[in-house]
Amino acid sequence: MKFKKLLFIGAVTILCTPFAQAQHPETETVEEFASPSVRNTGKSRGIVLSYERLPQFNIDSKSRDPRIDSGSGRVKRNNKFDARVYAPLVNKPQTKVIFGLEYGLEEFNFGEVTPSDYALYRYLEDKNLHSLGAQLAYLRSIDNRRFYLLRIKGDLNGDWEKDGASNNLIDYLKSTFEAGYGWKKSPDYVIGVGFQIGYTFGRRSIYPAIIYNRTFNDNWGVESIFPANARLRYNVNEKTLLYTGYKIDGASYNLFVDEGPLSKFKEIELRRTDFKGFLRLEREIYDFLWFSLEGGFRQYYRNRVFDEIGSRDEILRNDLAGAGYVRFELYAVPPRKFMEKQKRGG
């Protein structure tokens, strides 16, 4: 599972990376320029370490190619680990540029399977599906009512650390581009439109987006980029926030297979899309350190294996049963003294 590598990356980011003032600017005072954030939203994050786990669920794989068989089994565990860091490159009132780095891995452990040596499950058993990415986000306020934002992201997704895998890392590159234009009606109300070119639904496609962020009063608010996600927020106090909502999560992994029936295809692509309904608690531990605990139900919408990278030809169609999940995050935010100094113009 290579915990040492994950812990090393987390330690380096904590020791060497300055706190990001914002992935979105703080909004405790009336802003001079427009931004997507509204009053009472959660604090911006500089460093995030997270762990997610799904317990047992069934999997049924139907062959779409005569050269391979169908199979079924039970997944005992599906674990995900992530480390992320964000830092401001430009932090001016009208222009903000945020740089981010991410590292993640996903693993599967299987119980009983039929047949016992089924190729796909044997390959995924205790294999780390890696994701190493970087992103650049640009927010430009036109005036105190209008803004636009751009984000470009690149990820190396797959088993690129496996012996014998392609030495050309560009083969594993998955790129995402997002753009949006919005209007800040008031400090409590933002609406906008945009699009994403990415892998939310597994295969690279273009998707529309509607931004709707609104704070109704001191306790209640909504934050959404429809249809990808939406959540209802309840501010218990300045140190505790509760959320409920849904999110759509998608990914694409390139896999290098050099044994068994799948070796006929050499490089295959696993694409997945799932839907999550959740409850989430965010709580301050101490000044700049927060944690979150999230639980809910994850339902797989689509899980497919394709005969080569970028292909439309399915070789396996996986049906995964829905399952509950739990996710824990530990993250760092700008210290209060730093934010107070920023407000004073220091």
Description:
This protein has 346 residues and is mainly beta. The chain has a single domain (3-343), classed as Porin, CATH 2.40.160. The protein has helices spanning 3-16, 119-124, 336-343; strands spanning 47-54, 57-63, 71-91, 95-114, 129-141, 146-158, 173-186, 189-198, 205-215, 220-226, 229-237, 240-256, 267-286, 289-306, 314-320, 323-332. It has a 16-stranded antiparallel β-sheet that branches. The radius of gyration is 21 Å and the shape is elongated. Mean pLDDT is 87; it is low at 1-30.
- Chain-averaged pLDDT: 87
Helix-strand makeup class: mainly beta
Q: Helical region count? A: 3
Measure the end-to-end span.
45 Å
CATH class: Mainly Beta
Q: Percent of residues in helical segments?
A: under 10%
Gyration radius over CA: 21 Å
Helix/strand order, N-terminal first: HEEEEHEEEEEEEEEEEEH
The CATH topology label is Porin
Strand content: over 45%
**Total count of strands:** 16
Uncertain segments: 1-30
- How would a crystallographer describe the biggest sheet? 16 strands, antiparallel
Signal peptide: 1-22
Domain DUF6268: 126-298
Pfam family, one: DUF6268
Protein name: DUF6268 domain-containing protein
